[in-house]
Each structure stands twice: as C-alpha cells, then as structure tokens.
Fold:
Amino acid sequence: MAHKISLTGCLTSSIQDYGKYLAFDMEEKGSPNAPKGIPFKSNHITYTVVVSLKQFNKLNISQEEFSQRRFLVQGEPCLDIPFEQCRGEIGVICMQIQEIEDKGKEKKQPKQTPKKGSRAKKQEENKPQEESKQRKEKKQILVPKGTREWMSLEKIKVPETFLQFTLGIAKQKAVEESIEKNGTVDKPILIDPHTHELQDSYSRYYVAKRKNLDCVPVHY
Structure:
C-alpha cells in the first residue's frame, strides 16, 4: 500500500514552474509535546510539493494568489525528485489539493428579513384588495351611441335657465346606475360645438358632476 501524507498551511517558498508541473515548499510544525516516555521532540519539516499544471489550473487562481493562501495537500512521499528541484527535506507528489478558508475572515451572514409588525402585515393583507379595486377602476368605459367626442366637465358652460330646473329623482337614479355600470352617463350630453354651451341633458351633466367624472361623452 502506498504511503499517504497530508500537509496543511501556506507556501514557504516561491513557485518553481517546470512546464507540466509546479514545485513549491510547505512546512509542517511538529507537535510541541511528545507522548510521555519518549525523550525526543518532533521537528519542523520542510516538504517540496510537486503539483501538476492541470491540478493547479482547477484552483482557478493566479500564482501570486496561490502564494498567499492556505491549502490542504494530500499526496505520497517521493525520493525520485531531482535534488536541484527538491529543496525540502522530503518530496511529495500531490494527488489532491484544495484551498482552506481563512478562519480569520468573517463569514458573510445571510440577510435577515426584518420581522413585520402588525401594521405592515395589515398593509400586505389589504394589498390584494387594493389591487382588485384598481382593476375595477381601470375597467373599460363604454362609449354611448352617438358620442362625437369626450369633453371635460369644466369646459361645458351651463346657461342660467338650466340651473332653475327641478331634476326628477327617477331620472337622476337612472343616470347614477349607468355611471356605476358603464363608467359614464347613458347618453351623450348635447352641447354647442362652438361655444361649448349646454343645450340639453342637464340631468346627465348634473349627476356626472356630482359623481366627480372628469370627462363625459358629448354630441352636437
């Protein structure tokens, strides 16, 4: 069975590029305390690690970044590395290498969604109702037959004679029902095309104004 060795830490030398592979040194510190009864202490050992270019490229980092980070190297000891390339005390053929996250770096905490108070919850509950109301408001307005154009109520001039009329309740109610159902009056309001003076349909004008309609259909 092949010997296995694991190294952790940073590079202790520059990277040597040999084309198809790279070589660098790593140092492992010995345990400060040996088991009782053993009079020897473990020493620092420098290892020369040989990693293939393909393995290095998988890390997706530059050589400069590589020199500044910590790694876990799993490999096998080797005595065949040329002396001029193996500057450490033991050569290691890298079988697997992966970066180790620096414990000193703060981990990014996921953003916490703030708890919603009763007011915020109530607003969310009312949101569907408001959207439904908006859809109703955007309901397509039916155009009464005979409409020539739409005109602002502010532009329509009402003669004094109309203001003296007593409007029938039944007629007003019919206009109100049309506005609620169709979004506007049931028939166009008759006006003078030049002066914009009201000529007929005062009850429709009156109810439309009371219902705060912006524009009404008109006919000449």
Observations:
- The chain has a mean pLDDT of 83.
- The longest helix spans residues 118-137.
